[in-house]
Amino acid sequence: VRIGAGLGGPMSASGVMVDSLRTRSLLPLTEPYSALGYAYIGTAPGASIQASLLDVTGSFAVVDWVVVELRSATAPYPVVASRPALIRRDGEVIDLDGDAYVNFPSMASGNYRISMRHRNHLGVMTNAAFSLGFIPLRADFRTGAVYGTSPQTSVGGVQCLWPGDCAADGTIRYVGAGNDRDPILSAIGGSTPTATVSNVYNTLDVNMDGVIRYVGAGNDRDPILTTVGGTVPTATRVQQVP
User: Fold this and answer.
1) pLDDT for position 144
2) At 227, is the secondary structure helix, strand, or coil?
3) With contact defined as beta carbons under 8 Å apart, do 32 and 206 qualify?
4) I want to staple 240 with a disulfide (CB 3.0 to 4.6 A). Which of 63, 130, 135, 151 is the partner?
């Protein structure tokens, strides 16, 4: 399957994502999701890429790792296969060997819904099943129908995954128990909000610039408030993937 998507955290006003994690040499060569507790179906944990993939610059540069899932075509849409992949600045999702499509070689041809996850964004799923086979079909979350109510946000005119799920629990909270804001303050020391933690690959780095900030330009707290609505801090944003 050929996939197009946008991540709200690193998306710029021009409609192209920034690749700060790559330019700062912070992107890992081994998929990060197993260490975060994600259990793949049909794929062994610890998949890795060649370092040369991260040498590509421009709009084809890698932004980060993602997870692509094949799901049943019928409710409740359980995951039947999943594997790690990479997303580029231009929004194209590529396989770990650099191919322009994500391949599920052990799966039979058939009808599947497609979902995509990111380590600090809310996941998305197609609103319909795709008839997948040997020839890759295209599923574009930036322009196509996506499952659920307000499943994405528009950034730079591009439909993007909601940023700010630092706890990776499927719900973005600004205040209250289990919120995604307090861990950012704790990470920078808890008492000096202007402090920062630099050169990190971390789920608390919501805008994915390699720096954890609580206040100031490019901070990681404001996107969380924007995601929950911007005016009612007690509001929450729930992932629409079943």
Assistant:
1) 84
2) helix
3) no
4) 151
The answer to whether residues 6 and 142 touch, using CB atoms and an 8 Å cutoff, is yes
What's the start-to-end Cα distance of the chain, in Å? 21
Distance CA 225, CA 230 (A): 5
Reply yes or no on whether the pLDDT at 50 is more than 90. yes
Token pair 């319909």 is found at 128
Tell me: the pLDDT tens digits for 83-140? 999 999 999 999 999 999 999 999 999 999 999 999 999 999 999 999 999 999 999 9
Distances (CA, A) of 159 to 80, 97, 140: 26, 27, 10
CB-based contacts of 193, cutoff 8 Å, min separation 6: 185, 214, 215
Peptide bond into 76 cis (omega under 30): yes
* Whole-number Å distance between alpha carbons of 66 and 49: 13
User: Are 7 and 160 spatial neighbours (Cβ–Cβ below 8 Å)?
Assistant: yes
Q: What is the pTM of this model?
A: 0.97
Tokens of 53: 């993939």
Query: Which residue spans within 89-214 are E strands per DSSP?
Result: 92-94, 110-118, 121-125, 130-132, 138-140, 152-155, 158-161, 171-173, 196-198, 211-213
For the stretch 164-200, pLDDT in tens is: 999 999 999 999 999 999 999 999 999 899 999 999 9
At residue 114, what are phi and psi to the nearest 5 degrees? -120, 130
Across 45-137, the runs of DSSP E, i.e. the strands, are 62-72, 79-88, 92-94, 110-118, 121-125, 130-132
